[in-house]
Design goal:
This protein is mainly α. The chain contains twelve helices and nine strands. It has a three-stranded antiparallel sheet with strand order 5-6-7. It has a two-stranded antiparallel ribbon with strand order 1-2. The chain has a two-stranded antiparallel sheet with strand order 3-4. A hairpin with a 3-residue loop joins strand 8 (193-200) and strand 9. The radius of gyration is 27 Å and the shape is globular. The relative contact order is 0.13. Mean pLDDT is 79; it is low at 1-83.
Amino acid sequence: MSRKYAAIAGGDQLGARGMAGVTRWTAFGSLRSAGDARSARGAGSAGRAGSAPRVPRGPAGPAGAGARSQAGAGVRVGREVVALGNLRVPESLVGRVFLLACDSERGRLVARAKVGKVLRAAALVDLVLAGNLVDDNGKARVTAAPAPGDPVLAAVLEDMRAAGPRRWKHWVERRPGATVRRVRDELDRARLIKVEPHRILGIVPADRITVRHPLMRRQLLQAAHDTLRASRLVSRVDLRDASIVVLAATADLRTIVTKDQRIRHKDRLAQLAVRIGPVVPALKKSIQQAQYSAAG
């Protein structure tokens, strides 16, 4: 009799301690702020048998490109970037265009005869948006704004400052191959791409380029394509995202803008091009002249 009730009493004590533990956990959980609730749920999920911690989903904009400006803000030019682990999405437009111009299946850049000019154009747009360049009667003129921290953009700007005002087309065509190599090396150094030397047919030296973080690339591409949605006002889209699709469509880089998208959104792309400025017609003219020369 005594043993039986002793066992029951012992079980009740264990149950009481267990309930006390639940009460203490509930009390602790109640002290969390609403902003920490998501972290608390993620930690709780991680404690379940056989489950992994839940990773919060990133913003709808470019991967790591940051949240959009608050409602009521003026012209949208740039975005903050969000870290992906120890990595960050390139802040420069040239870096983003390079990643999107990579053909993942073939391990190389698409349209290699044109991609250098597109990167040059992207660098010019970057400098315009940063206030380093202005249009002066059809020529690019360097302002007194502080030089950018990006080494590729800084090199382009220094070259332009030394040469003085020139036509935008001149700067689009200025050493495009060297620009490709500089951007590639910076992305490789940041471990966003992997560059492996190899030989085509065992003879021609080339580089095999692999995008290390496909999710980052997909998010960048989605953010750029979002600017083509008719529901979004042309005057309110992010100019850097818009620049990606406009420059790609101008040069027919189909890893970024497909032929169907270019035809379907022709009017929208033209409206966005007006907002981006004189770099777009300069790129278009340069590519058309090169095509005429090749055909003739």
